[in-house]
Design a protein that fits this description.
- The chain has 124 residues and is mostly helical.
- Helices cover 65% and strands 7% of the residues.
- 16% of the residues are buried.
């Protein structure tokens, strides 16, 4: 009888721990949802927009490097490989080419961001 009571106690403790784990998981999901920033996929696999990151400009997924930055470096006659090398492994060649591809699909949008940045620099 003693053994059964000990086993029952252990099972009850395990049940209680499971309930606590479920409650903690729920709380973690709620906190993540409150603090997450919505991101918006584009038709380019490596390019997204994230609310309040780089002003919502298109960036390389998982990085804060804007398409505009990559285009500016490319316009300064840096090759895609040089851009990858300059970012010391942060960017991959595929990401750089995808950013350039995004630019060629949306040149007006990126030109507008560039103009806005130039205007802001002139004011400063």
């Amino acid at each position: 009888m003693q053994k059964k009571n000990g086993t029952q106690k252990i099972l009850e403790e395990i049940k209680g721990l499971r309930e606590e784990v479920r409650a903690l998981r729920k709380k973690v999901r709620e906190v993540r949802k409150e603090h997450s920033r919505p991101n918006f996929a584009t038709e380019h696999p490596h390019i997204i927009r994230v609310e309040n990151v780089q002003g919502g400009d298109p960036i390389v997924r998982g990085k804060s490097v804007t398409v505009q930055t990559i285009v500016a470096l490319y316009r300064q006659n840096q090759s895609p490989q040089q851009i990858v090398d300059d970012y010391d492994g942060v960017l991959t060649l595929a990401e750089v080419y995808d950013a350039l591809s995004y630019y060629y699909d949306h040149p007006g949008e990126i030109e507008q961001y560039s103009a806005e940045n130039r205007a802001a620099l002139e004011k400063a």
